[in-house]
Design goal:
Elements lengths: L3 H7 L1 E3 L5 H11 L3 E7 L6 H15 L5 E6 L6 H7 L3 E4 L13 H8 L7 E4 L4 E3 L4 H11 L4 E7 L2 E3 L2 E3 L5 H14 L14 E4 H4 L4 E2 L4 H13 L4 E8 L1 E2 L4 H20 L5 E10 L2 E10 L2 E2 L7
Parallel strand pairs: 1-12, 2-3, 2-5, 3-4, 7-12
Antiparallel strand pairs: 5-10, 6-13, 7-10, 8-9, 11-16, 14-15
Helix pairs in contact: 2-6, 3-4, 7-10, 9-10
Length: 308
């Protein structure tokens, strides 16, 4: 574990390190299949572009991806219809394995995807991308198809866009204010990871079905912690994907995300078992300070292998 920073120095790649042809050849030689999973909630404005570009480039023109599956997490807009029209196989999260119940959240959608996909290798991509390219997918698959690592994280220039322009590398506020300090204090074997909360990552199915999965936004950090504990840092690699932009969350929503991440870490540090955390936040309303109280769900799903 103490060698983790040195390990990531040698397990850090660039998406251009592999040609598309070489990855297709490696995939064919190994006999492995690839699923692209896009968890989405109210992303009708962007999910169609994500699906159609990957489908055209990596399924129809080049045969790297075998299926594109969108998991619709309680959307109230046209996410389902837009994704389906773009060529994805779309499922509503609540309708997958109804016998197991349903929870709101990104992690729940990713966990439910394990019951409706078949790929040996699973690539996760967020649905709200606005500045990206299809090389994200082969870039993430590179280490999985050419080495023995089990999980690959993407990292990228992530600008923070304001009314006065974009500031390079200033995105990722929860990463800098919560995840990175947590890792420094409690999980130093992961300090070599550049963007631990990146939504673009890839994993071997045989690992993913054995992971406990937080139903909310803590899924990425939990997967890293549980992987490094069970398989060591040598099971993880990271790939520079260039540039990525998406819409930014409101500050209070970031507070909810941070709460879920802290709860997942607490569960792994002290064995916490809470299913919800009462979060108090404050705002000014007509010159008065008003207290807002929210119950933040921090439920975790047991490994999917239990039911697969």
């Amino acid at each position: 574990m103490t060698q983790a920073p040195d390990w990531f120095a040698q397990a850090t790649f660039h998406w251009s390190d592999w040609s598309l042809d070489s990855l297709i050849a490696a995939k064919q030689a190994s006999g492995q299949t690839v699923s692209l999973v896009v968890p989405a909630r109210n992303e009708a404005a962007t999910v169609g572009d994500v699906v159609s570009r990957v489908r055209t480039t990596l399924m129809e023109t080049a045969q790297l991806v075998d299926e594109i599956v969108v998991i619709d997490s309680d959307s109230t807009d046209d996410t389902y219809e837009v994704a389906e029209d773009a060529g994805a196989v779309v499922y509503r999260s609540v309708e997958i394995r109804p016998d197991l119940g349903s929870h709101p959240g990104k992690g729940e959608a990713m966990w439910k995807s394990l019951f409706v996909t078949s790929g040996d290798l699973i690539v996760f991509m967020d649905a709200d991308l606005t500045d990206w390219d299809t090389h994200f997918v082969p870039g993430l698959l590179g280490p999985l198809l050419t080495s023995s690592v089990s999980l690959v994280k993407g990292f990228y220039e992530r600008p923070f866009v304001t009314s006065s322009g974009a500031m390079a590398y200033e995105g990722g506020r929860v990463t800098e204010l919560v995840a990175r300090p947590l890792i420094a204090l409690h999980f130093p074997e992961l300090v070599g990871l550049i963007q631990p909360l990146a939504g673009e990552w890839a994993v071997r199915r045989e690992l993913m079905i054995n992971l406990s999965v937080p139903t909310g936004y803590a899924v990425e950090l939990a997967a890293l912690i549980d992987t490094v504990r069970s398989r060591g840092a040598e099971a993880i690699a990271q790939v520079d994907l260039g540039r990525r932009a998406h819409r930014h969350q409101a500050l209070r929503d970031l507070g909810a995300m941070a709460t879920q991440i802290l709860a997942a870490a607490d569960r792994r540090i002290r064995g916490g078992e809470a299913e919800a955390v009462a979060l108090a936040q404050y705002e000014h309303v007509e010159d008065k300070v008003v207290r807002l109280e929210r119950d933040i769900p921090v439920v975790e799903r047991q490994p999917a292998v239990t039911w697969c």
